[in-house]
Amino acid sequence: MKKKKLALHWKIIIGLLLGVIWSMISASAGLSNFTAQWINPFGVIFIRLLKLIAIPLVLFSIITGVASLSDARKLGRMGGRTIGMYLATTAVAVAVGLLLANVINPGKKLTDADRTYNRIKYEVWAKQNQVDIRDGICESCKSENVFLLQKAQGDQGENTEVVKSKIEAAQKFKESGPLQVLVDFVPENIIGAMGNMSQMLQVIFFALLFGLALISLKPEVAKPAIEFCSSANEAFLKMVEMVMLWAPFFIFALTAGVFSQMAGDDLNALIELFMGLGVYMLTVVLGLMVVLFGVYPLILKQILKKKFGYKKFFQDLSPAQFLAFSSSSSAATLPVTLECVTENMKVSRSTADFVLPIGATMNMNGTSLYQAVATVFLAQMHGIDLNASQYVMITLTATLASVGSAAVPSAGLVMLVMVLSAIGLNPAWIAILFPVDRILDMSRTVINVSGDAAVAAAIDHWEQKE
Questions:
Q1: What residues have CB less than 8 Å from 135, skipping those under 6 apart?
Q2: Which of 14, 42, 43, 269 could form a disulfide with 254 if both were Cys (CB 3.0 to 4.6 A apart)?
Q3: What pLDDT is recorded for position 446?
Q4: Contacts of 4 (CB under 8 A, 6+ apart)
Q5: Distance CA 226, CA 210 (A)
Q6: Is the pLDDT of residue 156 over 80?
Q7: Calpha distance 288→285 (Å, rounded)
Q8: Residues 292 and 10 sit within 8 Å (Cβ to Cβ)
């Protein structure tokens, strides 16, 4: 009898756990420099390989998917449903984040003295930047807080270069005009767009346009181009399979490098850091788990009815989920997500080729939930009472900003700057979240990728019924 091979997702889990264990050993034994120079590079190579495959795979998969649709109206119907589902699930994720943040109140775990001082610093900043304080409270006006006011006036400090770069990126996006998002969809040069992972939307636009052009041609004229794109698509999917043979080792190297970089040579410092922002982190993770284990299964159960298997969904998608956790990038995970959705979940290739690349770019459920929790947390720790209009603004800004966000690590921080600015809070507060952002970025990317797969399964079910 043949010995049963260990499934790929179990190998990836083992590699991930060994990476975490090694990072702890590395921190305790002072081997962080060895890890950075001799182990982490293999993780970097893995991400580069996936990014190398991702852009051409998106290009050829969408062209093939669109060309397989004989009717352009079917493309419009599928596109409308896809975008509608992504926006709806993102709005639900934001609502979950806001609800949990207001129930757990992570920002109110600070002492009253600390929150009062933080509030006065906020009032000083608001006055200097001519920002209206919307809750009508004025701690700096109280006579007993004169000393704290003087201290706060001299404690505004300078933003770090990282904070400045995030604020400048958000400001540039904000000032670009209402139709700039549409302008950014259209590439000036498709070769240049393919060389930049953040320009995935432009590649998608070109692929859609090219696919529509193929549909409109005579079959005998379009056939060679369609066959070439189909063959190229299969070749890139085979490249994914080849890379994934070494995925457990690469995941070990990637995880070891990430956690070792966070810990350095002092494991206790990392533990203290997590304890300081522990309640905030737990709130975000709890929200992500509610979406992953509650919202997505509920949606699929209602849409697919008896076709949905809760346990099977996570088994089928686990390789992509663990890779998403390790890489913090929906775009880098896309090749593996495509393979899991088509091979394991049995979603039709034409649907997956169309829905998943769009999701990798515009579906940021985990990121939007994190922004909702982070915004309420930062407001609470600065003694700010948000009103109903600000909560509505958080929901709208976090949902719409996700459309233009790059599917790369820490892009959510730029979006968070936009959310904070929209409701009159200090965008420089993102620096408070820097120390734990990477670990949360890894977690929320799992939700983003899982949401892509759930929507693809739902859209495919509707298309099959049609």
A1: 384, 385, 386, 387
A2: 43
A3: 92
A4: none
A5: 10
A6: no
A7: 5
A8: no
CB 38 within 8 A of CB 324: no
CA distance 297 to 283: 21
Return the amino acid letter for 346. Answer: K
Residue with tokens 């969408």: 62
State pTM to two decimals.
0.80
CA distances from 45 to 74, 234, 240, 242 (A): 39, 22, 14, 14
Contacts of 307 (CB under 8 A, 6+ apart): 461
Q: What is the mean pLDDT of residues 18-22?
A: 88
- For the ranges 48-62, 276-290, 299-313, 394-408, the lowest mean pLDDT is seen at 394-408
| 157 has pLDDT over 60 | no
Inter-residue contact 319 to 244 (CB < 8 Å): yes
At residue 375, what are phi and psi to the nearest 5 degrees?
-65, -45
| Residues 59, 202: Cα–Cα separation, whole Å | 10
Return the pLDDT at 452.
93
Position 9 scores a pLDDT of 72
Residue 146 has pLDDT above 50, yes or no: yes
Per-residue pLDDT tens for 94-105? 999 999 999 999
Query: Is residue 125 pLDDT above 90, yes or no?
Result: no
Mean pLDDT of the region 264-280: 69
Burial call 46-70: b when 16+ CB within 10 Å, e when fewer: bbebbbebbbbbbbbbbbbbbbbbe
- For residue 332, what pLDDT is reported? 82
Locate 336 and state its tokens.
Answer: 């593996």
Name the residue with tokens 């449903």: 81
- The full 3-state SS of 10-71, as one line of letters, equals HHHHHHHHHHHHHHHHHHHHCCHHHHHHHCHHHHHHHHHHHHHHHHHHHHHHHHHHHHCCCC
Of 99, 178, 169, 87, nearest in space to 396 by CA: 87
Distance (Å, whole) CA 167 – CA 416 = 10
